Amino acid sequence: MTGPREAEARAASRRLLATSERELQRIVLDMHDGPVQDIFAALSQLQVLERALAPDPGSQQRAGQAVKLLERALGEIRNFIGAFRPPGFERRALGDIVEGLAVQHETLTDQGIELDLPPHLGDCALPTKIAVYRILQEALANGHRHSGASHQRLALERRGGSIALTVSDEGKGFDPQRVLASEEDVGVEGGHFGLRGIQDRVEMLGGTFALESAPGRGTSLTVTLPAE
User: Fold this and answer.
1) What pLDDT does 190 receive?
2) Closest to 223 measured CA to CA, from 179, 163, 170
3) Is the pLDDT of residue 166 over 90?
4) So what's the pLDDT on residue 153?
5) Where are the domains of the chain?
């Protein structure tokens, strides 16, 4: 039975997650309206300069290298903005948001997604919707970077008053306890950033977190979160 203090703490955590998401969207929009536009303008000017330096091959080459560096930086920033652009949490249903993220992942990575999404999933509270989206985003990215699998499986279902999300693959797997323990320190060996963050998000909402993996046996992550 949840006591008054615990219920109050859960409510505060839900408000914090929603506030953090709004702050993230503000940062993304500020990046798009500020640095991205400045980099694009600088790139355009540098491309003009590169053409003007045709009589001086050495200087033109250096200008061309600077153009390529700016193009790469601009591409990486745009990818970041695309990944964290608000998917319309308030106006779109949970199933539509999850399906859109799966399609986006396939497009950006060429890694297939087997999607198991019930037709009558319904919607859920805003903090849960945000948490499901960000957890799924991180889980799919981890699976792409580390599993070596050609595809991942994604299942979303309603279990009573909860939303259950499972992401799994048949990749190379890893030792969950070692990775979670290593994330207590800065500079995680092996690059599995984010598992601890997923666990923290789940705990803030009073959900459950289960991670099963072993070298050579693939990985399965299941989280349940309160729907309301």
Assistant:
1) 41
2) 163
3) yes
4) 96
5) 4-84, 94-226
C-alpha–C-alpha distance, residues 59 and 71, integer Å: 18
Per the DSSP assignment, residues forming a β-bridge with 209 are 223
What's the CATH number for 94-226?
3.30.565.10
Copy the structure tokens of residue 191: 């690059």
Determine whether 56 is exposed, middle or buried from the number of CB atoms within 10 Å of its CB (0-12, 13-18, 19+). Answer: exposed
Q: Coil, strand or helix: which one is 179? A: helix
Phi then psi for residue 178, to 5 deg, are -65, -45
β-bridge pairing 219-226 and 162-169: antiparallel
Half-sphere exposure (CA, 13 Å, Cβ side) for 94?
30
Torsion of CA 193, 194, 200, 201, to 10 degrees: 160
Q: What is the DSSP letter of 150?
A: S
Which ranges of the chain would DSSP assign to H, the alpha helix?
4-33, 35-52, 57-84, 94-109, 126-146, 176-182, 195-204
- Tell me the pLDDT tens digit for each residue of 173-227: 988 888 777 766 544 444 344 788 888 889 888 899 999 998 888 999 999 999 8
Beta bridge partners of 169: 219
pTM of the model: 0.67
